[in-house]
Amino acid sequence: MHAALEFSRPALWGIAFGLAVVAVVYIYEAANIGGLGYTRDAAAAVVATSTQVQTPPPPKYPPLDKAAYDKKMWQLANATTADPVILVVATSSASSTSATSTPKKKPLWPVTAAPYPKDGALLPFNRIVAYYGNFYSKGMGVLGQYPTDVMLQKLASTTEAWRKADPATPVIPAIHYIVETAQGSAQADGTYRLQMPDSQIDHALDLATQIHGIVFLDFQVGKSTLQKDLPVYEKYLKMPNVHLGIDPEFSMKDGVPPGREIGTFDASDVNFAAQYLAKLVDEYDLPPKILIVHRFTEDMVTHAKQIKPLPEVQIVMDMDGWGSKAKKTGTYNQVIYPEPVQFTGFKLFYKNDILPPSTGMFTPKELLLFKPQPIYIQYQ
Question: CA 44 → CA 37, 40, 41, 245, 260, distances in Å?
Answer without folding.
Answer: 13, 6, 5, 60, 81
